[in-house]
Design a protein that fits this description.
Blueprint (H helix, E strand, L loop, with lengths): L1 H25 L6 H41 L4 H26 L3 H23 L4 H37 L18
Length: 188
């Protein structure tokens, strides 16, 4: 019942935010360029505000999903409950990182998403290892760590590839790269 109320409130807030954009987008333009510029600024401001409201609504949805997932874990016991809670927390962290990346796309935000996924998988895998004993448990944790390290290395390499591609587009050398010999010519 509470979840329905929350979704209804979020939907209402989203629709209200969208309704405020409609008048700004449908106002008639005048012949003067000053009025057009003012209108354009107001539309840009409204779009920024709508994006911020959308991000806030997404954060609220993520939080509600996390609480619902955690609530499902309450009926479990032992390590199964611990695994369920780690999965719920991991899904929340990944969803928040994805929402942030959607709002402000960049190489860093893509890295943050990959890192959140790797960390969530690692936490769940470690928790699942607790079901085992002795050498199997130790081997399980080592495998979880190896998988985490591999995922983190892939995330870092993607981040550095994106950074080097961006610097190539802008004509700048990546950090740590010496300047080319053509730029260091002597003057005559």
């Amino acid at each position: 019942m509470k979840m329905t109320t929350l979704y209804a409130a979020l939907s209402g807030a989203f629709l209200l935010g969208a309704a405020t954009l409609v008048p700004a987008q449908t106002t008639g333009t005048t012949a003067g360029t000053t009025a057009d510029t003012g209108n354009s600024k107001s539309v840009q401001h409204s779009e920024k505000k709508a994006a911020k409201n959308e991000y806030k609504a997404e954060e609220d949805r993520i939080e509600a999903d996390y609480k619902a997932a955690k609530e499902k874990c309450k009926s479990m016991s032992g390590n199964a409950k611990d695994v369920c809670e780690k999965e719920a927390k991991g899904q929340e962290k990944v969803a928040k990182a994805e929402a942030k990346a959607k709002q402000k796309p960049s190489a860093n935000s893509e890295y943050d998403v990959a890192k959140a996924k790797a960390d969530a998988d690692y936490d769940v895998a470690k928790e699942k290892c607790d079901d085992q004993k002795g050498k199997e448990k130790s081997a399980c944790k080592k495998q979880a760590k190896a998988d985490h390290d591999k995922a983190m290395a892939e995330a870092k390499s993607k981040k550095s590839n994106v950074a080097s591609n961006a610097s190539a587009k802008h004509g700048t050398a990546p950090m740590g790269t010496p300047p080319s010999s053509s730029n260091t010519g002597t003057s005559k």
